[in-house]
Amino acid sequence: MNSKWRVFVADDHVVLRDGVKALINAEPDLCVVGEAGDGMSVLELCSELQPDVIVLDITMPGMNGVDVTKQLCTLCPRSRTLVLTVHESSAYLRQMLEAGASGYVIKRSPAQELIHGIRSVAAGGTYIDPQVAEKLAIGLRTGKKQTDKALDVALSERETDVLKMIAQGHSSKEIAHALNIGNKSVDTYKLRAMQKLGLQSRSDVVRYAMGQGWLT
Hints:
Layout (H helix, E strand, L loop, with lengths): L4 E6 L3 H12 L4 E7 L2 H11 L3 E4 L8 H11 L4 E6 L4 H10 L3 E4 L4 H12 L4 E2 L1 H13 L14 H11 L4 H8 L3 H15 L4 H11 L4
C-alpha cells in the first residue's frame, strides 16, 4: 500500500515502544519508520526521516517532550506531533499544545485511542484524549479556576509517582520500595515537586491530588 502514514515512535521504555510499534504496524494505513529513546535522538532521526506523525512521550532522557516538540516544529515543519503520556493533568496538555503538539493521548487509554489519534493528526486535525477533554469540560462547566502553579510547570514522571503515593498515604520507605529508589531520592523528588507546585504541607498535596483525579 503506497498511501501509508509514516510514523516515528519516541519513548524511553523499550517494552512500551515495541508494543506501540506492533500496534501501529498492524494497521493497513500506518507504518513505523523509526524510533528513539531520548530527546536528542528524536531530533536527529526525525530531521532525517521527516515522518508524517511523531508519537512522543513527555518524559525522556536528555530533553523533555516540551523542548523536543518546540524544536520539531522547526526541523520537521510538515510532521505532526502526537503526545503519548501517563500525565492526565490539563497543565501538561496546555504546555504541549503551546509547544506545537497536535494531539494528546493517555497511555492507559484503549489501544485504538492511539490509532485514532494518529490518523486524526496525520489528516491535519487536532486530537485530545476524551479522558483529558472531559476533565477540561467539567472544569469549564463548574467555573473552576486553576490558580495553582501547575499551569506553569511540568512534573517529571518520577516526581508525579512520588507525589501520588504521598497523597495516598504511603510512607517514604514504602514509596522507595515500590519505585525501587533510595529514601533520599524519595525526599528529593517530593521536595522538588512541592516547590514546583507551591505546596507547603501533606494536606496541600492531598488537595492537589484530588484536583488531578489521582485519588478516585
